[in-house]
Structures are given as C-alpha cells and as structure tokens.
C-alpha cells in the first residue's frame, strides 16, 4: 500500500507520524520542524527505534536525514505543512498528520503500540514548554550524554559542571548561564532524564 516509501523506512515514518499525531492530540498548536527534531531526538534516547544520527546544530540536536524524511512525508501526503509567518522575514512550517498517515499508523498499530506509552510520556514532558526551552533542554541532554560517554565513571556533579560549561560555550549568544543551570535541574526532574 505504501509502495512509495522504502520498506526499511516504513516503521520510522509510522513512528514519526504517531509522534506528530500524539502531539496534535495533546497540544493546541501544531509542531514545527524544530519541535519534531527534538521530539525524535528524545524518542531515540528512550529506546524508540528511529535510527537517526543527531549532531548539535544551531538549535540543538539535529538530523539531516530526519529533515529530509519530514520533507518526504509531506511529499508522500502523510504530513501537511502549514506555513505560518511570525513576522515578514520568518516563516515557520507547522505539521499535522493526514488520513493517509492515520492509515499507515493503523497498519503498523501492533508494532507502534509497544512505543505508545513512551511517545505519550515524551509529549507530556514537553507539551507546555516553548521551542526555545526545548532547544536548550535537548542541547543539555546531548552534551550530558556525550560527556558521560567520554568521562565514564565521573560523578554526577562533575558531569553536570562539564555539561553546563559545554552548553554555555556553545549557546552563550542565546542563553545565560543561569538559564542553562535552571534548565539542567528541570531536565533532571523529568522521567526522561539522561537516559
């Protein structure tokens, strides 16, 4: 039925559609591309098999392959891109799922149900925060995981300090150190903390 999507990508596409659908059910506005990037980054970190590789970019963890996948999903008719404008210069793409996406989700329902609770928790964790705060929290998480891998066995306080230093260095033009520290402690209180 979905012959136009590579069979290796069908589950990933269904998971992205399910995540966008859950966001649309629980949040009063559609997610932008940056929100989808961050949600997929966190979904991968909690064991959802998305398989995308993320690196830090201007607005936090970013995957070029996921960027292209979102565009393909629009082309395939699985997502609708509604372009809004915050001002005359900035256009923001906002996404919602289509009936075709609902069919894909239904056809993968048995496999997707395994991740339903994780995706729901993820949306609940981040549904009430701004895109700017989501950028910061995902960047903190990214550097914490990287530092934890590099400094195996380091205590949490050392990892916290190293992470905050790295984020301050990377984001000094966008966030103050106190914002970064506050966001770090906020992230520690979530069920998604530093998986």
Kindly describe this structure.
With 195 residues, the protein is mainly α. The chain is built from 9 helices and 4 strands. The strands form 2 sheets. The chain has a two-stranded antiparallel ribbon. Helix 1 crosses helix 4.
In short:
The chain has 195 residues and is mainly α.
Set down the secondary structure blueprint.
Elements (H helix, E strand, L loop, with lengths): L9 H17 L6 H13 L9 E3 L2 E3 L1 H12 L3 E7 L5 E7 L1 H9 L1 H5 L2 H11 L4 H20 L5 H16 L5 H12 L7
Antiparallel strand pairs: 1-2, 3-4
Helix pairs in contact: 1-4, 1-6, 2-7, 7-8, 7-9, 8-9
Short descriptors:
195 residues, 9 helices, mainly alpha, 2 domains, two-stranded antiparallel sheet, globular
Q: In CATH terms, what is the architecture of the largest domain?
A: Orthogonal Bundle
Structural class: mainly alpha
- Order of adjacent strands in the largest pleated sheet: 1-2
CATH topology of the largest domain: Arc Repressor Mutant, subunit A
Integer count of domains: 2
Q: Span between N and C termini?
A: 36 Å
List low-confidence stretches: none
Percentage of helical residues? Answer: 55-70%
Instruction: Return the string of H and E elements.
Output: HHEEHEEHHHHHH
What's the number of extended β-strand segments? 4
Biggest sheet record: 2 strands, antiparallel
Tell the overall outline: globular
- Average pLDDT score: 87
β-sheet strand percentage: 5-15%
Gyration radius, in Å:
17 Å
Number of distinct helices: 9
């Amino acid at each position: 039925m979905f012959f136009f999507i590579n069979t290796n990508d069908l589950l990933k596409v269904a998971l992205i559609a399910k995540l966008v659908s859950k966001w649309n059910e629980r949040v009063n506005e559609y997610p932008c591309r940056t929100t989808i990037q961050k949600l997929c980054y966190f979904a991968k970190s909690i064991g959802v098999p998305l398989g995308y590789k993320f690196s830090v970019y201007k607005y936090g963890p970013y995957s070029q392959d996921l960027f292209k996948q979102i565009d393909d999903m629009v082309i395939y008719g699985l997502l609708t891109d509604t372009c809004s404008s915050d001002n005359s210069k900035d256009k923001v793409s906002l996404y919602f799922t289509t009936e075709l996406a609902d069919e894909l989700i239904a056809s993968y329902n048995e496999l997707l149900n395994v991740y339903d609770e994780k995706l729901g928790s993820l949306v609940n964790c981040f549904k009430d925060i701004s895109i700017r705060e989501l950028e910061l929290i995902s960047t903190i998480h990214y550097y914490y995981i990287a530092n934890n891998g590099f400094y195996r066995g380091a205590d949490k306080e050392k990892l916290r300090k190293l992470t905050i230093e790295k984020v301050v260095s990377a984001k000094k033009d966008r966030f103050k150190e106190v914002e970064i520290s506050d966001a770090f402690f906020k992230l520690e209180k979530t069920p998604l903390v530093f998986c």
